[in-house]
């Protein structure tokens, strides 16, 4: 299916691996021109090579206050406009609430929440001009709190609310803003966890995957490409009536309304 994204311009943060890389590769297949942002220049180069000649890289630490604005300016300088911002950067520390430090909390909000705020703010005039879109990659922890995910749950809930706020503004200014909540996706982090569980329990990796997924009440783990497909849909004219939507792509893990 042609998503009608040919030659449009997208920024993807957290694009060096996992879900971000899958999004970049899918949007490149759709013919989009890309600006890929993350901290690792080497990994970004690998992703850009896989995405073809229409990809540019912007190595930066988006926790630093000037970086998001510089990223947006680089995209405009490179391609002359902007049609899509995918806010995907950020990982938060898990752990016992009473053991998490002030630095842990500040770091969790700095990269995932504040980079989303700053990138969205800097991109907004350009997206309004192009009648473009923002897709926030958030996470199911923002809808269902768990004891070991205090920081991530709080950050994700904040981004989900921000999605609704920006969508409300976007109705008047022509910017579509939606969010995706991935569940457990087979990225490097989850793969490492499966390997550790298999070794600890002396079982195969497949058995470890089955045991952990069943513990979360799902049939299997998701693939990064499945999140990327959802991004392509939300970025496309096929989703033109989606505004402030929160799409759970989690295998049925989220059971609340």
Short description:
It is built from eight helices and seven strands, in the order βαβαβαβαβαβαααβ. A seven-stranded parallel β-sheet has the order 3-2-1-4-5-6-7, sandwiched between helices.
Can you describe this structure?
- The chain has 257 residues and is α/β, with parallel strands linked by helices.
- It has two domains: 9-185 and 222-249, Rossmann fold (3-Layer(aba) Sandwich); 186-221, no CATH class.
- The protein is built from eight helices and seven strands, in the order βαβαβαβαβαβαααβ.
- It has a seven-stranded parallel beta sheet with strand order 3-2-1-4-5-6-7, with helices on both faces.
- Helix 1 (18-29) runs parallel beside helix 2.
- The longest helix has 29 residues, at 102-130.
- It starts with 8 loop residues before the first strand and ends in an 8-residue tail after the last strand.
- 46% of the residues are buried.
Which key terms come to mind for this protein?
2 domains, Rossmann fold, 8 helices, globular, seven-stranded parallel β-sheet, alpha/beta, single chain, about 260 residues
The averaged pLDDT comes out at 96
Termini separation comes to 31 Å
Q: What is the total domain count? A: 2
From the coordinates shown, what is the CATH architecture of the largest domain?
Answer: 3-Layer(aba) Sandwich
Structural class per helix/strand content? alpha/beta
Output the number of helix runs: 8
Layout of helices and strands:
Blueprint: E1 9-13, H1 18-29, E2 33-38, H2 41-51, E3 55-59, H3 67-79, E4 84-87, H4 102-130, E5 133-137, H5 150-173, E6 176-182, H6 188-201, H7 205-215, H8 224-235, E7 246-249
Parallel strand pairs: 1-2, 1-4, 2-3, 4-5, 5-6, 6-7
């Amino acid at each position: 299916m042609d998503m009608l994204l040919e030659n449009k311009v997208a920024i993807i943060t957290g694009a060096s691996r996992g879900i971000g890389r899958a999004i970049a590769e899918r949007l490149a297949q759709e013919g989009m021109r890309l600006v890929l942002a993350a901290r690792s220049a080497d990994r970004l180069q690998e992703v850009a090579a896989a995405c073809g000649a229409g990809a540019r890289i912007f190595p930066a630490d988006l926790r630093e206050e000037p970086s998001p604005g510089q990223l947006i300016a680089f995209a405009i300088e490179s391609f002359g406009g902007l049609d899509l911002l995918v806010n995907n950067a950020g990982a938060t520390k898990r752990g016992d609430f009473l053991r998490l430090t002030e630095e842990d909390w500040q770091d969790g909000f700095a990269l995932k929440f504040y980079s989303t705020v700053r990138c969205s703010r800097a991109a907004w005039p350009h997206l309004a001009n192009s009648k473009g879109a923002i897709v926030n990659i958030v996470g199911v922890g923002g809808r269902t709190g768990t004891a070991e995910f205090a920081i991530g749950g709080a950050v994700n809930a904040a981004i989900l609310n921000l999605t609704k706020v920006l969508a409300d503004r976007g109705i008047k200014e022509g910017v579509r803003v939606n969010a995706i909540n991935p569940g457990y996706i087979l990225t490097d982090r989850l793969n490492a966890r499966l390997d550790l569980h298999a070794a600890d329990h002396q079982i195969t990796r497949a058995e470890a995957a089955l045991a952990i997924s069943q513990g979360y009440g799902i049939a299997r783990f998701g693939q990064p490409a499945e999140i990327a497909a959802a991004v392509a849909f939300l970025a496309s004219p096929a989703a033109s009536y989606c505004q402030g939507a929160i799409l759970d792509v989690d295998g049925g893990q989220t059971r609340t309304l």
